[in-house]
Design a protein that fits this description.
alpha+beta, YefM-like fold, 2 domains, 3-stranded mixed β-sheet, elongated
């Protein structure tokens, strides 16, 4: 993985982004020699999945929901949901 300092990135942003996009290889961004970010190419169709998968709130919410479903502490019986849908129609 290529590495670039934040100052160099600021001075050559367009060229670095073009390189990442062209090669598909990510670039590690450092500040004062310490890793702070990764610049990676992303396909437009993958953007929403990427944002959601990397959103701490989303991930936390999904894990909570999965635990509750597994324990049976959340949700409603299918019959109840279908009855609500029918009543609204």
């Amino acid at each position: 993985m290529a590495t670039i300092g934040i100052r160099e990135l600021a001075n050559h942003t367009s060229a670095v982004v073009d390189e990442v996009n062209r090669t598909g290889r990510p670039t590690l961004v450092t500040k004062n020699g310490r890793p702070v970010a990764v610049l990676a190419a992303i396909d437009e169709e993958e953007l929403l999945d990427h944002v959601l998968a990397n959103s701490p709130e989303y991930v936390r919410s999904m894990r909570t929901a999965e635990r509750e479903i597994t324990r049976g502490t959340r949700g409603r019986p299918l019959e109840e949901v279908l009855a609500d849908i029918e009543a609204r129609a």
